[in-house]
Design goal:
The complex is a heterodimer of chains A (about 180) and B (about 325).
Chain A lengths: L9 H21 L5 H22 L10 H10 L5 H12 L10 E10 L6 E5 L16 E9 L17 E11 L1
Antiparallel strand pairs in A: 1-2, 1-4, 3-4
Helix pairs in contact in A: 2-4
Chain B lengths: L10 H26 L4 H18 L3 E3 L9 E2 L9 H4 E3 L16 E3 H13 L3 H6 L6 E3 L2 E3 L4 E7 L5 E6 L8 E10 L3 E6 L9 E7 L13 H4 L1 E6 L3 H6 E8 L5 E4 L5 E3 L4 E6 L1 H4 L8 E8 L7 E3 L5 E9 L1
Parallel strand pairs in B: 4-9, 10-12
Antiparallel strand pairs in B: 1-2, 1-3, 5-6, 7-8, 7-19, 9-19, 10-18, 11-17, 12-16, 13-14, 13-17, 15-16
């Protein structure tokens, strides 16, 4: 005699399939598993490279009295452009391209300083000509910072709001990512 | 005969089971990618590459002469030329420093140390870097040393991308442990000087100072004639000026100046409009002392109008890459 007990129907197969695939999809999209191999190391390498580049730009060459980085930041807060900074930083992080680096590194820079009137710490982004990380793509920006010691007061009145005209340290933050 | 369909697969079951199976396979392929990156081998290689990069870039290295550490005969590893150098050199870092223990100048490499590292590594057929930089202990098998890691280290200049030095095996697989460091190389103490005519009245000489007493300078920027020698180039020297050039004398600043050497070795380059003085460290042995100032005097007869300013050679920006597999 034929009966239907214990029988798998098409409709049940379809239901099981949908259930399984939907569950896996949910699990995959809602949990981020930070495996050291695929994220941490790459972030570390990028961070190390950015830190190195800033540190080496902050080295005073023999015979000079200030480092290139200090000069660029001085130019910057005195209203100049950042072309030289961009060119040098780009040289440092993107040279030897044919190595393991597949995509070039993009970057953006911020300056963090004390507002002389209010006493607040202000973060200013110098947008001109810089890119922004494309969050919709796989860009994972990392941030590197360096205290830049300005040994001389800026020459002209700085275009930044209430930037005090005296020797001081400002924090330079550079965001790096691969597009 | 009675027909009975027990033990028979129904078409309904077949379709349902196929759909289930296909979905199951899809799920497996989706999830398998989750754990494949947990493979620990590349993490280890990356860690070793990072460590190697740190030792090369941030550590000046250390050499200890004698048997015991507490004897404290700590010396620069690159100066060790004893028969037992393999035992006396502890770590072969490249960071430039005049100070043995303090790691004052991470990222600035000494050209002298780079040359010595390359030399010792080629003498030992790549084993020196294994032992003194990677700290990779070999397993000895029938006279051959087997190491756990293989390496390729390059130093490339940033400007033109030219390879300055390379160590290890250049043929490496695509997936390796990797680190890239930005460094600057402290070239030997070079003092290129441009001499322009008519900038000052003729004094019959041009003076280049060698100051060994200025303690306010970072020790890195102080000339180190005992280890690096001195290299001076007078450029933009016209043929007429070259014709009047007689010799270079070396004095100690004092009142009156003390003549140390009346005519130091020098050469003129008629085609390049240059006068060069290139002195080895041996030249300075026993004739100069830290804390005093000296000068080189370029003599011209008859009197020639010379003048100019002293420029120092900048550090050379470079990229250090380490591959480990």
């Amino acid at each position: 005699m034929v009966d239907n007990i214990g029988q798998l129907y098409t409709i049940e197969g379809v239901a099981a399939a949908i259930l399984m695939i939907f569950t896996t999809y949910l699990v995959l999209t809602t949990t981020t598993i930070m495996t050291p191999a695929d994220t941490h190391v790459i972030d570390m390498q990028l961070e190390q490279l950015g830190n190195d580049a800033l540190a080496m730009m902050d080295v005073i060459d023999p015979g000079d009295t200030s480092s290139p980085l200090e000069n660029y930041v001085m130019d910057w807060i005195s209203g100049g452009n950042l072309d030289e900074f961009k060119e040098m930083f780009d040289d440092y992080v993107n040279s030897n391209f044919e190595g393991k680096d597949i995509r070039p590194i993009s970057f953006n820079a911020y300056i963090i300083y004390r507002n002389n009137t209010s006493g607040d710490v202000i973060k200013e982004n110098f947008k001109s000509g810089f890119l922004e990380p494309d969050r919709s793509r796989s860009a994972r920006p990392v941030s590197v910072t360096r205290w830049v010691h300005l040994t001389k007061p800026p020459l002209t009145k700085p275009p930044l709001p209430d930037f005090d005209s005296r020797p001081q340290s400002v924090l330079l933050e550079v965001i790096l990512w691969r597009d | 005969m009675k027909l009975d369909d027990s033990g028979q697969l129904s078409l309904d079951f077949l379709i349902g089971f196929t759909i289930f199976l296909v979905a199951f396979i899809i799920v497996i392929t989706m999830t398998s990618g989750l754990i494949v990156s947990l493979m620990s081998k590349t993490i280890d290689y990356d860690a070793v590459a990072y460590r190697t990069g740190v030792i090369l870039v941030e550590d000046p290295g250390i050499g200890i002469l004698g048997e015991r550490l507490d004897e404290n005969i700590v010396t620069k590893w690159e100066d060790i030329t004893t028969t037992f150098w393999a035992d006396d050199i502890y770590r072969a870092g490249l960071a430039a420093t005049n100070d043995l223990i303090k790691k004052k100048y991470p990222g600035i490499l000494s050209q002298e140390k780079i040359s010595r590292l390359v030399e010792l590594n080629s003498i030992t057929k790549n084993e020196f870097v294994h032992e003194k930089v990677l700290f990779d202990k070999p397993v000895h098998q029938g006279g051959a040393s087997l190491y756990s890691y293989r390496y390729y280290i390059t130093l490339k200049s940033i400007g033109d991308g030219g390879v300055l030095e390379e160590l290890g095996e250049s043929e490496h697989p695509y997936n390796t442990g990797y680190i890239k460091r930005v460094v600057k190389i402290n070239l030997t103490y070079k003092t290129p000087i441009d001499v322009y005519s008519q900038t000052q009245p003729g004094t019959g000489s041009y003076i280049v100072s060698l100051n060994l007493s200025d303690q306010s300078l970072y020790s890195l920027y102080q000339p180190d004639p005992w280890n690096e020698g001195v290299y001076i180039v007078l450029s933009n020297v016209t043929p007429a000026m070259q014709a009047n050039f007689s010799n270079v004398s070396f004095y100690q600043y004092a009142d009156p100046p003390v003549l140390i050497n009346g005519s130091v070795p020098n050469s003129t380059k008629p085609y390049d409009n240059k006068i060069e003085v290139n002195l080895d460290p041996d030249f300075f042995d026993g004739i100069i002392e830290q804390g005093y100032n000296y000068y080189f005097k370029f003599n011209f007869t008859p009197d020639t109008t010379v003048g100019g300013s002293t420029k120092y050679a900048a550090f050379l920006p470079a990229i250090l890459e380490v591959y480990i597999w």
